[in-house]
Design a protein that fits this description.
- With 995 residues, the chain is an alpha/beta fold.
- The protein folds into three domains: 32-386, Alpha-Beta Barrel (TIM Barrel); 404-575, Glycoside hydrolase family 3 C-terminal domain (Rossmann fold, 3-Layer(aba) Sandwich); 646-856, Beta-lactamase (3-Layer(aba) Sandwich).
- Helix content is 32%, strand content 14%.
- The chain is built from 31 helices and 33 strands.
- The strands form eight sheets. An eight-stranded parallel β-sheet has the order 8-7-6-5-4-3-2-9. It has a seven-stranded mixed β-sheet with strand order 17-19-18-33-32-31-30, with helices on both faces.
- Strand 2, helix 3 (67-80) and strand 3 form a beta-alpha-beta unit.
- Helix 22 (653-667) crosses helix 26 (789-798).
- It is elongated and about 120 Å long.
- The two termini are 61 Å apart.
- GO terms for molecular function: beta-N-acetylhexosaminidase activity.
- Residues 1-21 form the signal peptide.
- InterPro entries: Beta-lactam-related (IPR001466), Beta-lactam/transpept-like (IPR012338), GH (IPR017853), Glyco_hydro_3_N (IPR001764), Glyco_hydro_3_N_sf (IPR036962), NagZ_Beta-hexosaminidase (IPR050226).
C-alpha cells in the first residue's frame, strides 16, 4: 500500500461500529466558523491541482458488478483522488463493504451519494424499504409525515455510510406524458411541491444528510427523457418564474444544501442551440448563483446521459459544466478525459485556478459539515435489520394510509358495509389474486375473488358478469403495469366494457393502484379510490381505508380529468373497524413482544401444557400481533395451528354471547336487572331461584352452586352412557346431539332444568363463581326475544359485525380440520371431543347454552372486545349504547373482581391474580376452561386474546394454569410497550387520546 499522504494527519481515523447523533447540515457555504475555516485551509494547503480536480469528480459505483468494475473504481480513487461516489444497484451488505473498502483507499474521505427519492429501495429495491414515490406523498395533507420520511431516510443513509441524497424532486409535473419525472414529482401545484420539498429537505438536513433539489430549473413539463435526448422547454421567462422556478427559489431561501442541474434546453434562459442548462453559464452562474443567491453545492445531473453526450464530446461536457459554475461532476463518462479537458480550459483561460479553488473549498466545507473531516467505517453487523426496522415499516404504512384519496363517492359506498343480502365480489385486473389487497379484504368480509388481464377475454368477462347479481357489492382493483416511473394503469375498451357491465348490476367501487393520470379513463364511475402504487403496503392501506379501519383524507396532487381534478378528495371518518399495523405503529416493541410470546408459548408446549395456541394483540384499534404456535394435537402429523383456527371458547361464551345479549335486551327495555327473574319466567315461581335478580347473577353473587355434574346420573354401572338416555344415532325422542354418534333423550333436559331451579342456594350473599346463572339467562333470552341465545347473538352481533367464525355447533358451517380437538373423553362420551362443545352440561343441551358452547377465532373475539372498547360502536354501527357498556364493564358494588358478566382485575392481594398485574383496574374480559383468555384494557387501549386446547388430551392436565401462561402472555403486551412515546389511538370509556 502507498505511503499515507500527509493530509491524513489532519483526519481522525476511527472504526465506527455504532452511529452517533448527527448534527444538522447547514446549506450556506458562503460563510463558515473559525474551526471549519481552519480545517478547510489546512486540507486545501496539501492539495496540488490534480488533487483539487479529483474533488470535482463523483464516480458511478455498483455493488452488483464483478471484480473488473471494483478494480476500475479503486484505480480511479487511487490515481485521480476522486472526491465522491454515487452508488447504484446491488445489496446493502455489499455496498457497505465496498464503501468501507473504497474509503480506506482514499486520502480524503469521499462524499458518497445515492438516488434515494423514495428511500434506499430506489436503488436496492429487493433488500431495503421503498417509501411512497413523491406523487403519492403529494396527496398527503399532513406534511410533518414528509419530514419524518426524510429523517428516516437520513438515518438509513448514515447507517450505510452515505452522505448525500439526490432528493427531493422539485419538478412541478404538469405534463401527464412526462416519461421520466411523472410519479417522482409531488404533483402539479407549485405550492404543494414547495411545501413538501421543504419538509423532505429538512428531514434530511436536520439529520446530517445533504439534500439535493432537482432537476433545476424544472423538468416537469417535457415529453422527452433526458437520459436519451435533450428535452426542449419553450416557456418564456415569466412562466418559468411563476411555476418551474418557484419551488427552487423557496428552498434556496430555506437553506437547501445542494442543487442538481438538469440537462434541458430552455431558450428563454440560454438560446444557444443544444446547450444543456447543466452546462449553461447564464443558468448556473447568472440565474442560480447571482439572481437566486444560491450558495450551496451544484451537482450536474449524470454526465453519461444522452441529453449531453449526444451533443458534446467526452471531457468537453465536464469542462463546460465547470465553466458554467457547477461544483461536482456526476458520473463522467471518462475521468481522465474530464480532467484533461478541464486542464485545457484552464490553460486557455476559460477556467481559472481561482475558480477551481472556490469549488474545492465549497466541497471541503460541505464535507466537514457532513462529518467527513474524519474517516468512519460503519459496522456490517445487523445491517439489514437496522435498515428495515419496524419503525421504518410503520412510517411507510402511515405514509400510504395518509395518501389514500377517495376521488369521488357519489353513491356513498365508502366505507364498504357488507349487507345482509347480496355478496361481495372482488375483481383484480392486471394481477392474479390472491394479492395483498384481496387478502386484507378477506379479513373484513367473506369474498369471492376473480382475476383477469387488461385484455379482458370474452370468456373472462362472461365468467365475472355471471358471478355478480343484483344488489351485490363489487370491488375492482386496477393494478399498474409496474413501469419504473410511470406506473401506468392501462384502462382500455375491454376494461371499460367490463366495468360498465358490473356498474349496471351492482354497487361498484374502483381502487386504482398506479399513476393518478390513469383516472382520466374512469370519469364515468361514481366511487373511485386512488391508491397510487401497487406496492404491498399501498394495497393493504387501500383495503383498510375502504372498510373504514383508517380515515381517508388524501387529495389528488394532479389533474387527470374534469372529474379528477387537482385537490379532489373526500374525507371519511374511521368506521371504527379493527385495522392492521405492525406493533411499533402503536407504541409496542414488536421484536420484544414476539420474543416474549414465542418463549412463553414454546415453554408451555414443551411442558405439554397444551399442544398449540393462538395469541392476538391489538392496540389503538389495530391488530398488531396474530400468531399460531404448535399443532392441533401432540402428534407430529396433526395440523399446524393457524391464527384463523376455531376454538371451543368455554366460559368466554358467558361474555361473548350471553352477556352481550342481556346488555341488548336491557337497553331495549325488555329486561330489568333488578326485578326477580320469575317476572319473565313464570315457571320459576315457587322455586329456589324465584326471587333472584340479574345483577347479582351476572356478578356471581346470587348464591348459586358453581355447577352440577348432570351427566353422572346418565351413566350406567360401567361408567358408559346408559341406553336409557342415549342412542348412537338420532331416532325417536333421542334427538339431542351430545357428541358425534351420541344422542340424548330429550326428556332429560327437563330433569336438568328441574335440578337448576330446585337446587338450594348454598352461597347466598357470597361470591361464588357459577355456571348455573348463565344456564338460566340463556333460557331467559329465549323467552324474552323468541330466539335462542345462539341465534339472538348471531342476529344482533355476529352477522352484522361480519364475524364469520363466531358460532355454536361449528361443524354445521366449518370443516373439522379448522377446529382443534378439545379432549379424549374417557369419563362421559368415551370419544374424542372434536367440534362439539367440551362442557358436559352444554353438550346435554345440544351444544347451545349461556355458559358454554360458543366457538370462534381469535380475530372475531378481538373484534367483539374492540366494539366494547369503542363503547358499543363498530363499523359505524352502534350495537350497544355507551352507557350500557359502561354499566356492565364496571366493577360490581363491593366486589374486588367481577363486573356484570365480565371478569375484571382482582384487586384483593390475598387472592390469586387472574390477569396481568400491569393491566389497569378498568380491564375487563373472561377466562375459559379449555385454555382461553380475552381481555380489553381501556386505559392502554389493548385487546388481548389467547386460545388453546390445554384440555387435550385430558382436562385433568393443569400445567397450563400452573405455568400461569395466560397471565404471563398478557403481561408480555404491557412489558413491550415502548415508554416515553405518544401514539395515535381511539379512546373508550371516557379514556381519550389524540384523534
Amino acid at each position: 500500500m502507498n505511503m499515507i499522504p500527509r493530509i491524513l494527519s489532519l483526519i481522525l481515523l476511527c472504526a465506527a461500529s455504532t452511529l452517533t447523533a448527527q448534527q444538522s447540515y447547514r446549506g450556506d457555504l458562503s460563510t463558515h466558523t473559525a474551526e471549519e475555516g481552519r480545517w478547510v485551509d489546512s486540507v486545501f494547503a496539501t492539495m496540488n491541482l490534480d488533487r483539487q480536480l479529483g474533488q470535482l469528480i463523483m464516480l458511478r459505483a455498483h455493488s452488483d458488478r464483478g471484480a473488473d468494475h471494483v478494480a476500475h473504481v479503486k484505480a480511479e480513487i487511487k490515481k485521480y483522488h476522486v472526491g465522491g461516489l454515487c452508488f447504484f444497484q446491488g445489496t446493502p451488505e455489499k455496498q457497505l463493504a465496498l464503501t468501507n473498502e473504497y474509503q480506506a483507499l482514499s486520502s480524503l474521505p469521499m462524499m458518497v451519494s445515492m438516488d434515494a427519492e423514495w428511500g434506499l429501495g430506489m436503488r436496492l429495491p429487493d433488500h431495503t424499504i421503498s417509501f411512497p414515490k413523491q406523487i403519492a406523498l403529494g396527496a398527503i395533507r399532513n406534511n410533518e409525515l414528509i419530514y419524518d420520511m426524510g429523517a428516516e431516510i437520513a438515518r438509513q443513509m448514515h447507517r450505510m455510510g452515505v452522505n448525500v441524497s439526490f432528493s427531493p424532486v422539485l419538478d412541478v409535473n404538469n405534463n401527464p406524458n412526462n416519461p421520466v419525472i411523472n410519479t417522482r414529482s409531488f404533483g402539479e401545484d407549485r405550492y404543494n411541491v414547495m411545501a413538501k420539498g421543504y419538509q423532505y429537505m429538512k428531514g434530511l438536513q436536520d439529520n446530517g444528510i445533504l439534500a439535493s433539489a432537482k432537476h433545476f430549473p424544472g423538468h416537469g413539463d417535457t415529453g422527452t427523457d433526458s437520459h436519451y435526448d435533450l428535452p426542449v422547454i419553450t416557456h418564456d421567462r415569466a412562466r418559468l418564474d411563476s411555476l418551474e422556478l418557484y419551488p427552487f427559489k423557496a428552498l434556496i431561501r430555506y437553506g437547501i444544501g445542494s442543487i442538481m442541474a438538469a440537462h434541458l434546453q430552455i431558450p428563454a434562459l440560454d438560446d444557444r442551440k443544444n446547450r444543456p442548462t447543466s452546462m449553461s453559464l447564464p443558468v448556473i452562474t447568472d440565474l442560480l448563483r447571482h439572481e437566486l443567491g444560491f450558495t450551496g453545492l451544484v451537482f450536474t445531473d449524470g454526465l453519461e446521459m444522452k441529453g449531453v453526450t449526444n451533443h458534446y464530446s467526452n471531457g468537453e461536457v465536464e469542462a463546460e459544466a465547470i465553466m458554467a459554475d457547477s461544483d461536482i461532476l456526476l458520473l463522467p463518462e471518462s475521468t481522465p478525459a474530464a480532467i484533461t479537458a478541464i486542464k485545457r480550459y484552464i490553460a486557455e483561460g476559460k477556467i481559472t485556478e481561482a475558480d477551481i479553488e472556490k469549488k474545492v473549498r465549497r466541497i471541503l466545507l460541505s464535507k466537514y459539515r457532513l462529518g467527513l473531516n474524519r474517516l468512519t467505517f460503519p459496522s456490517p453487523r445487523n445491517l439489514r435489520g437496522e435498515l428495515n426496522s419496524p419503525e421504518a415499516y410503520s412510517l411507510k404504512q402511515r405514509l400510504f394510509e395518509n395518501a389514500m384519496t377517495l376521488v369521488r363517492d357519489s353513491e356513498k359506498l365508502v366505507p364498504v358495509q357488507p349487507k345482509a343480502r347480496g355478496k361481495v365480489v372482488t375483481v383484480h385486473i392486471g394481477q392474479q389474486s390472491p394479492t395483498p389487497f384481496s387478502r386484507r379484504v378477506d379479513d373484513y368480509v367473506k369474498t369471492t375473488h376473480y382475476s383477469t388481464s387488461y385484455k379482458v377475454s370474452g370468456a373472462d368477462r362472461q365468467r365475472i358478469e355471471n358471478a355478480v347479481g343484483e344488489g351485490d357489492q363489487v370491488i375492482v382493483a386496477l393494478y399498474s403495469d409496474g413501469s419504473r416511473f410511470l406506473e401506468k394503469v392501462p384502462v382500455g375498451p375491454e376494461v371499460l366494457g367490463l366495468l360498465r357491465a358490473l356498474d349496471a348490476k351492482a354497487e361498484l367501487v374502483l381502487s386504482v393502484f398506479g399513476n393518478p393520470y390513469s383516472l382520466a379513463g374512469l370519469d364515468g364511475f361514481g366511487t373511485v379510490l386512488m391508491a397510487y402504487s401497487r406496492d404491498d403496503v399501498a394495497q393493504d392501506a387501500a383495503a383498510q381505508g375502504l372498510f373504514g379501519a383508517n380515515k381517508i383524507n388524501g387529495r389528488l396532487p394532479v389533474t387527470a380529468s374534469p372529474s379528477a381534478a387537482f385537490n379532489a378528495g373526500l374525507e371519511t371518518s374511521p368506521a371504527f373497524r379493527m385495522g392492521y399495523a405492525n406493533p411499533e405503529a402503536v407504541g409496542i416493541d414488536g421484536n420484544l413482544l414476539d420474543a416474549k410470546i414465542t418463549t412463553l408459548a414454546n415453554q408451555a408446549m414443551s411442558r405439554k401444557a397444551t399442544p398449540g395456541m393462538v395469541v392476538l394483540v391489538g392496540r389503538n384499534g389495530k391488530i398488531v400481533y396474530e400468531k399460531g404456535f404448535g399443532r392441533h394435537t401432540y402428534s407430529r402429523s396433526s395440523r399446524k395451528v393457524d391464527p384463523s383456527d376455531i376454538y371451543d371458547l368455554a366460559s368466554l361464551t358467558k361474555v361473548c354471547a350471553t352477556t352481550l345479549s342481556i346488555m341488548k335486551l336491557v337497553e331495549e327495555g325488555k329486561l330489568n336487572l333488578d326485578v326477580p327473574i320469575s317476572n319473565y319466567m313464570p315457571e320459576l315461581v315457587g322455586t329456589e331461584v324465584e326471587f333472584l335478580t340479574l345483577r347479582p347473577i351476572l356478578a356471581h353473587r346470587a348464591g348459586l352452586r358453581s355447577w352440577v355434574p348432570f351427566y353422572v346420573e346418565t351413566l350406567n354401572a360401567n361408567g358408559k352412557p346408559s341406553s336409557q338416555y342415549y342412542r348412537s344415532q338420532r331416532t325417536g325422542d333421542f334427538q339431542i346431539e351430545v357428541a358425534e354418534k351420541l344422542f340424548m333423550h330429550k326428556s332429560y333436559v327437563d330433569s336438568m332444568w328441574h335440578k337448576i331451579y330446585t337446587n338450594e342456594l348454598p352461597n347466598e350473599g357470597q361470591y361464588r363463581y357459577s355456571d348455573l346463572g348463565f344456564y338460566i339467562m340463556a333460557k331467559l333470552i329465549d323467552q324474552i326475544s323468541g330466539l335462542t341465545v345462539d341465534e339472538y347473538a348471531a342476529r344482533n352481533f355476529y352477522r352484522p359485525m361480519g364475524l364469520e367464525t363466531m358460532t355454536y355447533r361449528p361443524l354445521r358451517s366449518f370443516p373439522k380440520s379448522r377446529i382443534p380437538p378439545t379432549e379424549n373423553d374417557n369419563y362421559f362420551r368415551h370419544a374424542q371431543v372434536h367440534g362439539t362443545v367440551h362442557d358436559m352440561g352444554a353438550a346435554m343441551l345440544g351444544g347451545v347454552s349461556g355458559h358454554a358452547g360458543l366457538f370462534g377465532s381469535a380475530r372475531d373475539i378481538a373484534t367483539i372486545f374492540q366494539m366494547l372498547l369503542q363503547e358499543g360502536n363498530y363499523g359505524g354501527v352502534q350495537y350497544l349504547r355507551p352507557e350500557t357498556v359502561r354499566l356492565f364493564a364496571h366493577r360490581y358494588a363491593d366486589e374486588t373482581r367481577r363486573g356484570l358478566g365480565f371478569d375484571m382485575k382482582q384487586l384483593n392481594e390475598n387472592r390469586s391474580m387472574n390477569i396481568s398485574p400491569f393491566a389497569s383496574e378498568k380491564a375487563f374480559g373472561h377466562l375459559g376452561f379449555t385454555g382461553i383468555a380475552a381481555w380489553a384494557d381501556p386505559v392502554e387501549d389493548i385487546v388481548f386474546v389467547v386460545l388453546s386446547n390445554r384440555t387435550y388430551p385430558s382436562m385433568n392436565n393443569n400445567t397450563f394454569g400452573k405455568l400461569d401462561t395466560r397471565l404471563r402472555l398478557h403481561s408480555a403486551c404491557y412489558e413491550s410497550i415502548m415508554k416515553g412515546k405518544s401514539f395515535e389511538g381511539r379512546g373508550g370509556f371516557g379514556f381519550s387520546k389524540a384523534p
